[in-house]
Design brief:
Number of helices: 3
Oligomer: single chain
Distance between the termini: 38 Å
Order of helices and strands: HHH
Strand content: under 5%
Radius of gyration: 15 Å
Largest sheet: none
Structural class: mainly alpha
Number of strands: 0
Shape: elongated
Helix content: over 70%
């Protein structure tokens, strides 16, 4: 999947802000990755956040609306 320059920047910003692995020092490295690699990293980080939210909900209890 080809990313626009704006999409690439958004993915990199997301990874830097939300990942336990990537930080501001890694921006130049992330910029060298292909669009496909960035997309995979983004999807993995997104899934990790969802899994963490589910685990936290299981610990604290679910709120029903």
């Amino acid at each position: 999947m080809a990313l626009s320059a704006r999409q690439r920047q958004q993915v990199i910003d997301y990874l830097v802000a939300n990942s336990a692995v990537w930080n501001e020092d890694d921006v130049s490295t992330l910029n060298r990755f292909t669009d496909d690699k960035l997309t995979v990293l983004y999807e993995q980080e997104s899934q990790r956040e969802v899994a963490l939210a589910v685990a936290n909900a299981a610990v604290t209890g679910f709120e029903s609306e």
